[in-house]
Amino acid sequence: MKILIIHHTGLMGGGTLSCFDIIKALEGNKHSIVLALPPGESAARQLAKNNNINILNDTVVPLVFGHYNGGANILKVLIRALPRLRYIKRWEKILRREKPDVVLLNSMIQWPMISILKKLNIKSVCFVRETIKGKRRGLINRFIAAKLQNGTGVSFLSEFDKKQWDLPERVNQIVIPDVVDVDNYSNGINKEDSRNILKLKNDVFYILYSGGMSKIKGAETIVRALKHCKGKKIELLFLGNSGNDLLEARGVKKIKYFTKISFIKKLYRFIEENGMKDKVKFLGVQTNMNYWYSACDVVVFPAEEAHQARPIYEAGVFKKPIIASDFPNYYEYLKPGVSGLVFKPGDHNELAQAIENLYDNSVLYDDIGNNNYLLMDKFHNSKSVNKKVNNFIESINSL
């Protein structure tokens, strides 16, 4: 079977990791796999080269419509999406030449491709990795749902997402959670060795946050929570973009990102005014996340709006407790009070209390961490998830 996988970004985020997980699951069955990536050098393209993945030679912009929870407003979405329509003919030409048996769209925002694939009579699977924005019966979501139904298959990350989209039963749909290859990810590393490698102190309680300088992902919430953890050896490992590139912006770029730059300046000012420079370690974008998970004491996912929470089960690999914003979207993979703690989104006082509860109570800490591991293993282990991926793609190809 020839499978063309179309990925929409070159950035190294959760969606990109999931894309490579799908490729790894399919490679074991000796399919012919081709990966289409956005033009230009990127982290995703380099990772594909490192893994000897066959990359589509054509440099063509993906068709996307980025309407999802936490994304831009509809005006910005349209401004970004409409110019890409000029690439429709180019995509048709590529697809006719490549002749794939099945095309995998690695994100719901690529739904504009479904009409092209249907026109060319090419089977497709759309992986819905985003949380729905607004009400399901809203005009835009109804339109997207209609487009999803035109594909051959749809895959969701959770039963919650599947129920929210509420597609007709006639649609070939399945729930395939994200996968964690426990043996490769944990790789036999332990907390002490990881701290030595990363040059971290052994007597500090480290909080891991990997969302970068993003308001939606909760950067301000976690920093403000840390301020309330007084008199304790608690520090924050702040991973992801630190915003320094935007602080150096000039001209049009500075105007374009004015709101985000203001947010970054405000957060840095808060850290300085409260004497927290030694408590917050800005570590930039990291590729070997397993060492950071191993080295930390607790993982925090303080999103202000619900979206897919990969850190929940990645923390579980290392039996680390997770603290996350209280969204029902997470309840399949996080049992509040059992495998993780939750707090009201944006409430830094509640978050600080949850951190201190784990700091002060070793029994609670161990119970939460162990249960997070068990839940991770139940839903996200590579053996069962990879089998689901292959069975579903093969069933789509046989239609």
Annotation, overall tally of beta strands: 12
| Average of the residue pLDDT scores | 93
Task: Look up the CATH topology of the largest domain.
Answer: Rossmann fold
Strand arrangement within the widest β-sheet reads 2-1-3-4-5-6
Q: Quickly count the domains.
A: 2
Q: Just give the CATH class of the largest domain.
A: Alpha Beta
Question: Which of globular, elongated, flat, extended, rod-shaped describes the shape?
Answer: globular
Share in helix: 40-55%
First CA to last CA: what distance? 13 Å
Account of the protein in words:
The chain has 399 residues and is α/β, with parallel strands linked by helices. It has two domains: 2-179 and 382-397, Glycogen Phosphorylase B (Rossmann fold), CATH 3.40.50.2000; 182-379, Rossmann fold (3-Layer(aba) Sandwich), CATH 3.40.50.2000. Helix content is 45%, strand content 14%. The protein contains 18 helices and twelve strands. The protein has helices at residues 14-27, 43-50, 74-81, 88-98, 112-119, 139-149, 159-165, 182-186, 191-198, 219-228, 244-247, 251-256, 258-273, 289-295, 310-317, 348-360, 362-380, 382-397; strands at 2-6, 32-36, 102-105, 123-128, 153-156, 173-175, 205-209, 234-239, 280-284, 298-301, 322-325, 340-343. Strands 2-1-3-4-5-6 form a six-stranded parallel sheet, sandwiched between helices. Strand 5 (153-156), helix 7 and strand 6 form a beta-alpha-beta unit. The longest helix is centred in the last third of the chain and has 19 residues, at 362-380. The radius of gyration is 21 Å and the shape is globular. The two termini are 13 Å apart. The model has no long low-confidence stretch (mean pLDDT 93).
